[in-house]
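Key idea: predict the complex, not the pieces.
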Amino acid sequence: MPHPFPSNSIGLVSPQTAHFTEPLALDCGRALVAYDLVYESYGTLNADHSNAVLICHALSGDHHVAGYYEDDPTKPGWWDNCIGPGRPIDTGAFFVVCCNNLGGCKGSTGPTAINPETRKPHGPDFPIVTVKDWVRSQARLADRLGIIQWAAIIGGSLGGMQAMQWAITFPDRVRHALVIAAAPRLSAMNIAFNEVARQAILSDPDFHHGHYYEFGVVPRRGLMLARMLGHITYLSDEGMRAKFGRELREGKIDFNFNFDTEFQVESYLRHQGHAFVDRFDANTYLLITKTLDYFDPAADFDQDLSVAFHRALARFLVVSFTSDWRFAPARSREIVQALVRAGREVSYVEIPSEFGHDAFLMPIPLYHDTLRAYLTRVAQEVNAHAA
Amino acid sequence: MPHPFPSNSIGLVSPQTAHFTEPLALDCGRALVAYDLVYESYGTLNADHSNAVLICHALSGDHHVAGYYEDDPTKPGWWDNCIGPGRPIDTGAFFVVCCNNLGGCKGSTGPTAINPETRKPHGPDFPIVTVKDWVRSQARLADRLGIIQWAAIIGGSLGGMQAMQWAITFPDRVRHALVIAAAPRLSAMNIAFNEVARQAILSDPDFHHGHYYEFGVVPRRGLMLARMLGHITYLSDEGMRAKFGRELREGKIDFNFNFDTEFQVESYLRHQGHAFVDRFDANTYLLITKTLDYFDPAADFDQDLSVAFHRALARFLVVSFTSDWRFAPARSREIVQALVRAGREVSYVEIPSEFGHDAFLMPIPLYHDTLRAYLTRVAQEVNAHAA
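Result:
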């Protein structure tokens, strides 16, 4: 009996693994001798390989971006609402690819992977990777799949930073870059929040300098705190007010010193923290927050982002959300201004929303209509080129 | 040889302790049988006791609000820039009082105080206190000092909440309430930040359910994380950008997995966290964050703050700061609107600043001029009444 998936769902999907044996030189000066990238793909690559779309994931995302796994038919991929036949990222038109980034903990080589030399997890010996490293590794995956040029590269948050970096590093391999809820680089406040999250993990006695795997423990408390804190920055004040207000969980104030959850928002955050610990690795969290902090594409161009974009050949869609204070609309407008000064073609849309940074994952009609309209034009280009 | 204090400094000061033996019934249902309040006072109480000003402190503040201690002549009180002869809160005109709040850790009875029955610190057995409890205890201190009515009650942040509560609870004992960088109550996001701070302390293995004193340890890691996080919410994105930018501490990116501080903002936050652990108690931090979360003066008045203010007789000055996102100007405007609807006299000033919430402690000229002008009028009233 078939699973009762929605009619415009991509349905059952399964990940694949690409193994690479050519060493990858990293920005940190070290190299990965060999590595795996786990990825998913949906839709069909057309004859001239011109309809491929790369999705880049954010901090805690992974390659399972749409559809369902056979063994978990109730929980779709993290951006399923946007990807499928007839959805904004239309798998009827595009061949959609997403890989778990290097350093991740969902199957691509990262701190949790076994180091063949020591037969133990890499742990803290895994090198720090950068957005540029990711882009280079993704380019090798594209080579493997026979994709010379992506019709579009799409990402939200840290994913949007990868889309930007692709357009700068590989100008002739990206026709369109869709940069959503991103920033040209992190602000001091962004870095400060990451630093508190890192300190929470590093100061957890179960962290064991990153070698916790060998002790049969994980730094649960630290990772939970990091996620709770992160989660606050993904929401907005007005969104939280609408969702939780000051609702008390049991209907009354407790007034003792045991600090059980009293307000709904406390309960929600603790749940988010607990759930995260079961699905994410602390070393990967440390690593990817550093990847975020280091991202600075203008650094190679005398701190002038427009000079960086001068290299790019892609056309851009930049999207921001009004209540996003992690990467506020002003940060997206910095990207747009640099693109305009660089003479690039760019469309900019600011979506009214109270969902904060998380809005980029939400099926907000104006947002999805925007993606749909833009990508319909991209699909028309693909068809015109193929015809 | 006299200390070279600035000429408009109040100079050397010393704290005093008031011991109370009449039991204080608390909102939580319990009572304090006896308690101490440590306080400081500056200036001279006039003949008809009409020139007294109460300063209420915020989360991590205390009674040492101005002047210098003999044994630490380099570090003035926390609001010294605003209080002294000729300063905005002019000790030539006013008798200024500030006490460490109940539940504090600087001399007033709180979790660190010895419980005479057990001869151990109260620790987690200390009752949760509310802003209303504080106001009632401060009223007893006023009785002790012979102050029937305060010329003004002044406070920033949680201190401003106490000023509001005073005007509601003791209408005839407050002529002016100066409510600075405050909010009518905490938002879900405010509570969420407090909850992460509490979880950091509660999950520290050195917390020992609050009985850490008996183990000869303190939950340093948790308290440090709580303070680092709090500190981010006291600053603003633009202020941090101006102060730290993305300056690297050693001039270059480290690119290894040891997570030493690299960016200046990281170093600053860690320093703030470390310094706080040496001067503050974790149980007090837990308690006062709950005091903040519970503050809701409208709750007794069917959630209509204007009905609460209808009782008040004081005139109000409400001050907010443009870049304060902890208690944003919009929250101050809620207070102003409720006051106006209640028919109260209120002046409202929004001060341009990039210092975030911390601005209420800064000697911003427009801010200090505002306080000076308002309090000059209050002093004139005092003189007119005395004449």
